[in-house]
Amino acid sequence: MVPAALPPLALYVHLPWCVAKCPYCDFNSHAAPARIPAEAYVDALIADLEQARADAAGRPLISVFIGGGTPSLFPPQAIERLLAAVRARFDLPPDLEITLEANPGTLEAERFAGFRAAGVNRLSLGVQSFADAMLTALGRIHDGADAERAAQAARAAGFDHVNLDLMYGLPGQTSAEADADLARAIALGPDHLSWYELTIEPNTAFWSAPPALPDGDTMAGIETAGAARLEAAGYQRYEVSAWAAAAEHRCRHNLNYWQFGDYLGIGAGAHAKITHEDGSIERQARIRAPDKYLQRAAAGTAIAHRDGLAPADAAFEFLLNALRLPQGFARACFEQRTDVPLAWLEEPLAAAEADGLIERTATAVRPTPTGLNYLNDLLARFAAATEQWRPARDRVGRIPVAVE
């Protein structure tokens, strides 16, 4: 089935270097060399952008997100050159959201005005905690005072859209400590808060040597009290872990992910999802190692592999993302973006509705507050239902390209 309209298209740019690798981080990030090859890397990104442009087939972008790693390690001039290359190659709306992730360290804060002048209009600060002991346990290089100064510096630099990343459920953290962290974040008046639980992921230092985390009852109390504090402060929850001071401060880039939109991905290890005119969906992954990426992007061979997305995977990935949203999703959007009739999921939908995990109307499906609290259980029902379609994968094979 050919889609009536292609999904919105965003651009993700990955800058892979950090000052040090955090013990909880499973992203494709690497301790920075003595001198980051910023200019050479931007050259590689621009070459990669040319290939991504061909996949975009003339479609406009709705957002640009520069993530990492720690993108604020790059000089503003490098970011300006990158964004100029984007503007030269894509149709962009006048209010395009351009986000850059930044570290609250003093050196990066001094660059904020330069990033704003380069065209970045949304700054996301990786605070994680304001408690110095917690930051040390997390391997962060800043302290609580640095985090507060960075938030203030972002405002002074002219940013009207500031996000703070804050984690809870940290090693040894009490309910009172988690509440104090959230109170300090709110006091800074950010437009957006990403407030989420620390999880221990494979291939991290914490996975090899797990720290003692708060128990389930403590976690439940932190989540309940935190949600109440955020609501009392006027923040609106529009995703499981995302809170905005007003609708215009919701992260458009992340909303596009959660609504199963399309996105291009450039940079070492970046991923992409592209819906083609015939309705087929393609996944791409770039070379992960920064040194190899630098070589391959210049040659136009930065893509490590392409995969077709089978109907079973498309349906489940849509639900995996869209059920994180309190407003849920439109039935027509599910069918248009997955090429799967929602009627195929009638049995698990009806069971989830009977158990009070979702609500349905003639046009939409949304999780209940209980469903959001037990999201993993809710999603497991659909994982089991879509697994029966697994043979469809045999008809959507890997597209051979140069491998990493």
Explain this structure to me?
The protein has 2 domains: 9-256, TIM Barrel (Alpha-Beta Barrel), CATH 3.20.20.70; 311-391, Orthogonal Bundle (Arc Repressor Mutant, subunit A). It starts with 8 loop residues before the first strand and ends in a 5-residue tail after the last strand. It is an alpha/beta fold and 404 residues long. It has helices at 38-56, 76-89, 106-109, 112-118, 132-137, 144-156, 175-187, 205-208, 216-232, 252-258, 290-298, 311-322, 331-338, 346-354, 369-373, 375-387, and strands spanning 9-15, 17-18, 30-31, 63-68, 97-102, 122-128, 162-168, 192-197, 236-239, 242-244, 262-267, 271-275, 281-286, 303-308, 329-330, 358-360, 364-367, 398-399. The strands form 4 sheets. Strands 9-10-8-7-6-5-4-1-11 form a 9-stranded mixed beta sheet, with helices on both faces. It has a 4-stranded antiparallel beta sheet with strand order 12-13-14-18. The protein is globular and about 55 Å long. It contains 16 helices and 18 strands.
